[in-house]
What we know:
The structure holds two protein chains of two kinds. By secondary structure, chain A is of the alpha/beta class.
Amino acid sequence: MSANPTLVVDDIHTYYGESYVLQGVSLKVEPGTIAAVLGRNGVGKTTLIRSVIAFTPPRRGKIVFENQDITRWTSYRIAQAGMGLVPQGRRIFISLSVRENLEIARRAATGGNEGWTIDSVLDLFPRLRERMRNSAGTLSGGEQQMLAVARALVGNGRLLLMDEPTEGLSPHVVEELRQLIRRLRDGGMAILLVEQNINFAIESADYVYVMDKGKIVFDGLPSDLAANNDVKETYLGV
Amino acid sequence: MSFWIVNTLNGLSLAMILFLLAAGLTLIFGLMHIINMAHGSFYLLGGYIAITAIRMSGNFVVGAIIAVIAIAILGTLVQRLLLAKLYKQEMPQALLTLGLLFIIADIAFFTWGGDPQLVPQPALFQGAVRIFGVVYPLYRLFLIGWGLAVAFLLWMFLERTKIGAVVRAGMDDEEMVRGLGINMPLVFTGIFALGSALAGLGGVLGGPLLGMFPGADFEVVLLAFVVVTVGGLGSIRGAFLGSLLVGLVDNFGNVWFPQLSLFTIFVPMVVVLALKPTGLLGRT
């Protein structure tokens, strides 16, 4: 792998119809690192994720994934190129069994190594193993989040997009999730994490961005943000 | 007693024709949210092409295969060249298919004329057999068997294959399926072609009983919409159950109250919708 960033978002502008949401956002995710984007509700964090995976493509600007310009690609091609998504609200398929949720998402890893298999993600989430034949709609909120993460992992992407993965989870599960994403990072995965949970982001990330009204208003090391009460008060409300 | 047996079997054979139509309609709606009025056109063209192809080849099976393949190709073209351009625009899509219904009706009238025509019955299934103490046309029994077989195969496809799981996932959250790297545009085309082919098959197999004539397209698509509305949009089991209900109700309604034929179909539909707005087995 070259020293180039895994993901470069370069001055993107994204609209929902007439509503101008992302007003020139730029950021980078380096290989084997976690970049976190923080911000209040409604500042455009989810739109940023939706822009990267082309659910809501940007009207202007450029998105580069592993040196390829993917700005005009469709969602499924981007995902195939090696991007995994843990979306806001989990969005697991409730008509499918837990096993089917994983089977349709499974894609072999590139470069010869086996990557994540259904079996190996089940070792990570033993609770899901007991529920394999159940309809995914019957899972608890925490189990659904595990399934959403497991589903993204079996796709064997090299960049993971995570949109508020801690939402609605108990502190204990949040801590497990933090350890898991650190482990994924140490295994070489790049992660773009969007969060409202400031502590979670500061404790997990290698680099943080703060968003407000569709723009990046701060970027730096987590320790810089932790020490910067101005930014925290103005943009994050703490 | 024989009255009940004969009319139940008649209702079931009609139900199987309806199921062939409703299965595709409900899959297409469930996955792509397209109200496909042209589904009736695929039925009509399937029947007409079968009439011509059977006449030319002298063989029912050959004619049936030609008709079904032709309709599958037509469905593929309609989806790829027209409907895919209007992705997620539900009203323009519905209007487009309504326009196709009229255009294809005119082309069919111009090509096959205005007189009703029957699809020739396969030689193997001509005649009648004794069943449950009544003498009953063999072809209608064959039709019931075919309908059950198609229903079983479709159920296996949807519930037991990976592509079937992708289709069901697409009905839950199509965008998310794309986000997993699955080529949904291709799945859309495949399901539309499958649904069209089933409608064409409905025309081929229903043709010996109901005949093909101008207006048959609208007549069957109306009944098929009643079926999927009663059964629940997006559900194959719902389409099956709805077909049985509508087939039987329509048949007995025609026997008992022949002058009220539309009434006997739509009243049960209204009752079902009033009690359960998503249909009997509808997705919520």
